[in-house]
Design goal:
- The chain is an alpha+beta fold and 410 residues long.
- The protein has 2 domains: 296 residues, Bira Bifunctional Protein, Domain 2 (BirA Bifunctional Protein, domain 2, 2-Layer Sandwich); 90 residues, Anticodon-binding domain (Rossmann fold, 3-Layer(aba) Sandwich), CATH 3.40.50.
- It contains 13 helices and 20 strands.
- Helix 1 crosses helix 9 and helix 6 packs across helix 7.
- The chain is elongated, with a radius of gyration of 24 Å.
Length: 410
């Protein structure tokens, strides 16, 4: 679910420049990586603030769209991965461990675990479509030469969505998810995605009749959703065809993010079923979805797309309250507490440095609003706001929270 356009993979790009996410990660104190955890991410407080904003936003949108959040285990037996077919397909990319004489593996994806949730009890057709959503932390043993910061990592988190439905419900479910994708991408500042339809790979599970049925159903659903797509022969998942949604960033590069995969294979392999209106057992259709694909990679994309200057709703600190002199330190803390209660992410700068230095450092850190407190502001109960784009205005403390609150969240 996380392949990149082969001509635009990060490891084929030029050496890092000032707007490379790895450079920005260091300059803005967001994250780092080190040899003791190759391909893993150490999130710093400012970076994890961005991570949580993205995560909370996606969680809210999924909940509003009718998805129920779940959590499945990180470690499952090797026999289970053999049953699902992932052991055969991804054996060289899976981290394996043993407990006694029993082999296990860290999950490379969350779909088999979510199927176990579905089949834990007898399901009725009246429960369908059943929509699960998971922030699934996965591990893949990528070659060391392919690792590229947040864009290609060994440990990352997928916004992993699975819909269990009947074949007749596929069109509506794909359509409603495509509409959700477009809306979410727009909120993050991206244009309409480029869409590809990936057909059956040479190495796959399921017979040709099953693939014929799956490909035909997904094509119809994509057209009903109003998608224009190009064909990518042989690029589908091993269990089903997929739609890939590629976003183009401000540098003109395309990245695969969202997916919609139609799967008749895994429900059969893992014995998922529901009771139909005829009181007989039937196999559900499984739709695999993702909006972002990988939270880590998407944050890397956001950093590069916005050149480190994130919009107010995404910025790790939305307002920096800074003092001019030591006499305003108490007022700065009070002002920060008031703005924090309004739901804003607020930092303070009460260092005994020149105001010009505080302004320059806030701008360097990409803080959208610098709120300055001097003697006059303290007397009036105001703050002097310096917006990132250069605009300045003085505003009452109570009014600042109301003004910014609508821009501070999506």
């Amino acid at each position: 679910m996380n392949s990149l356009d082969p001509e635009l993979r990060p490891d084929r790009l030029q050496a890092p420049d000032a707007y490379d996410h790895r450079v920005l990660g260091t300059r803005l104190d967001l994250f780092h990586q080190q040899e003791e955890g190759p391909g893993m991410v150490f999130w710093h407080p400012r970076g994890f603030a961005i991570y949580r904003v993205v995560e909370d936003y996606i969680r809210r949108r999924m909940r509003e769209a009718g998805f129920m959040e779940v959590r499945t285990p990180q470690l499952l037996s090797w026999a289970f991965w053999e049953q699902s077919g992932h052991a055969e397909k991804f054996a060289n990319e899976m981290f394996r461990v043993s407990s006694g004489n029993r082999p296990f593996a860290l999950k490379p994806m969350s779909c088999p675990g979510q199927i176990q949730l579905f089949r834990k009890r007898v399901r009725s057709v009246h429960e369908l479509p059943l929509r699960y959503f998971e922030f699934g932390a996965v591990h893949r043993d990528e070659p060391s030469g392919a690792l590229q910061g947040l864009m290609r990592a060994r440990s990352f988190t997928q916004d992993d969505v699975h819909i269990f439905c009947t074949e007749e419900q596929v069109e509506e479910e794909v359509q409603r998810f495509c509409e959700l994708l477009r809306d979410i991408y727009s909120d993050f500042g991206f244009g309409a995605p480029q869409v590809f339809f990936s057909t059956r790979p040479a190495k796959r599970a399921g017979d040709d009749a099953t693939w014929d049925r799956a490909e035909a159903a997904l094509v119809i659903a994509a057209r009903k959703a109003g998608l224009d797509f190009a064909i990518r022969n042989g690029e589908g998942a091993f269990y089903g065809p997929k739609l890939e949604f590629h976003l183009r960033d401000s540098h003109g590069r395309a990245w695969q993010c969202g997916t919609a995969q139609l799967d008749f294979v895994l429900p059969e392999r893992l014995d998922a079923s529901y009771v139909g209106s005829d009181s007989r057992r039937h196999r559900p259709v499984l739709i695999h979805h993702a909006v972002l694909g990988s939270l880590e990679r998407f944050i890397g994309m956001l950093l590069e797309h916005h050149r480190g200057t994130l919009p107010l709703w995404l910025a790790p600190e939305q307002v920096m309250v800074a003092s001019i002199g030591r006499e305003q330190e108490g007022y700065v803390r009070k002002a920060a507490a008031v703005l924090g209660r309004e739901g804003l992410r607020v930092a303070t700068d009460i260092r005994r440095d020149r105001l010009s230095r505080k302004i320059a450092e806030a701008r360097e850190q990409g803080v959208p609003v610098l709120a300055v407190a001097g003697e006059r502001e303290m007397e009036r109960g105001t703050l002097s706001l310096r917006w990132r784009e250069g605009r300045q205005e003085e505003m009452a403390l109570a009014e600042i929270g109301r003004r910014l609150r609508g821009q501070a969240v999506k």
